[in-house]
Amino acid sequence: xxxxxxTACQAANALAKKEVTACDLTESIYKRIAAVEDKIKGFITVxxxxxxxxxxxxxxxSLEKGDKLASLRGIPMTLKDNICTLNLPTTCGSxxxxxxxxxxxxxxxxxxxxxxxxxxxxxxxxxxxxGSSTExxxxxxxxxxxxxxxxxxxxxGGSAALVAARETFFALGSDTGGSVRQPASLCxxxxxxxxxxxxxxxxxxxxxxxxxxxxxxxxxxRDCAMVLDIIAGHDxxxxxxxxxxxxxxxxxxxxxxxxxxxxxxxxxxxxGVEEDVKKAVKRGIEKCQQIGTVIEEISFPHxxxxxxAYYLVATAESSSNLARxxxxxxxxxxxxxxxxxxxxxxTREEGFGPEVKRRVMLGTYALSSGYYDAYYLKxxxxxxxxxxxxxxxxxxxxxxxxxxxxxxxxxxxxxxxxPLTMYLNDIFxxxxxxxxxxxxxxxxxxxxxxxxxxxxxxxxFDEKRLLQFSYKLESLLQxxxxxxxxxxxxxxxxx
Amino acid sequence: MTVGKxxxxxxxxxxxxxxxxxxxxxxxxxxxxxxxxxxxxxKLELDEVEPTTHVLxxxxxxxxxxxxxxxxxxxxxxxxxxxEKEKFLFRVPSIIE
Lengths: 495, 97
Description:
The complex is a heterodimer. By secondary structure, chain A is an alpha/beta fold. Chain A has a domain at 3-264 and 396-477: Amidase signature (AS) domain (Amidase signature (AS) enzymes). Chain A has 15 helices and eleven strands. An eleven-stranded mixed β-sheet of chain A has the order 1-3-2-4-6-5-10-11-9-7-8, with helices on both faces. The longest helix of chain A has 23 residues, at 373-395. By secondary structure, chain B is mainly alpha-helical. Chain B has a domain at 5-43: Histone, subunit A (Orthogonal Bundle), CATH 1.10.20. Chain B has helices at 5-14, 21-38, 72-80, and strands at residues 85-86, 89-90. A two-stranded antiparallel sheet of chain B has the order 1-2. The longest helix of chain B is centred in the first third of the chain and has 18 residues, at 21-38. Chains A and B meet through helix 9, helix 10, helix 11, helix 12 and helix 13 of A and helix 1, helix 2 and helix 3 of B.
């Protein structure tokens, strides 16, 4: 077995037992990248191998000097390219920020560095995190490791594909309307979006600030808990970061004291959801029953209203957040503009791709004089209704289970010219963002050889129990050890 | 409620984005499809509902008004990313005639 095949936790244990070194792990990841990255294209930037290795040497020295063993010390990892890194370009998947070096590290970048993890690169994404297929990257699309004619989902498609392809032990992504969970579902990995406010957004390039949250993409639930242990916690540089006592999520992961009550919203198993997806998620629900979980069919009456409300709130906030890309202080500037306004307009015309323009304009429209009440304000009211739906459900249920995505991965190019059809991918993921709730996608089965994800949504800041439940469910599902088979460079491609 | 090409042009000008003729046609069509879908919200009774701008109870986060050192290095780093600069300034097209 190659080292890159280990989970982050297994790799950390092997390090602790001195069976391997941090350099061995890093070498193994670079070997894997060299072998399969041409087929996946999950990275925008791969860090110089020598740089990563010299960091691995330092970490190894501190390990051997008896430095207190931090859980993921020495483990190679990847960050989505909208998370600021001082020493690597941070492009947001956009021509607008091509080659941009931020003058600071994001909070999560600092935390992962302090914890001794080794950054190997920055992952591909839909431009400014707008999209559900990673086809909106200004550079190139990422391919699904299970079948390279299919999309990996998005917007954190690079992160999800790299974890699935074993090119990184874990990755971070960002989730504004499902951008961690949906690609996790389509690539067959675990994707977790924490409660809004649990992880600092300092240094996460903003898309829709009231919805954005940094999340994890990992090979299993244990790795997810270990990464969350590092990145969760208060940070005064993000005014929406919640000051609360730090919890330990990976300790006692296998213990979950009581049996849980889980609600299954009937609205999430209707029209528009593929039969195989329903079947795989229902199989997962049946597994829960075997361990004494109480399963009840419930109603989530406004699920269908979440998506239109989401697309108004997210686009409105993005139109304001993306106003900063004007060609003045950093990033792309159009050549040959005659005056200041011309410079703004040409820079944004040439620097933004079609989906970003679409959303910025839609948001501008929703906020514009005369339409504010009809669109933006209405969406904010629907947000209240969605929150109340959840509050009611959580009065007598611990979790809600539903599909992560209504379909498995779709073919490259299939939906790219039809924005509304593309938006419908997010129908089951946006409610958790509108209500700020923690939600996880766990692989639960396959349809036509492509992975299906099951989503568990929990109460605000109930991560500990949510992960305990997910851990138990994952072990019952028994799909986490099935890996995609990617022909390595030099092997004959039979597909 | 449908959106015409002139409205798309107006919104593009507010958003400071130049559009080609082809783009104007494409976005007009797509906006109408998307807005038609969004109009399902019109069926909801929302008069008595309070809007939610943020899920957390937000309050101002204040700090002491202390001067922090901004080193030459940071200024250089920031200006390093400027598309055009002159000495320690961003260079922009002339604004005043």
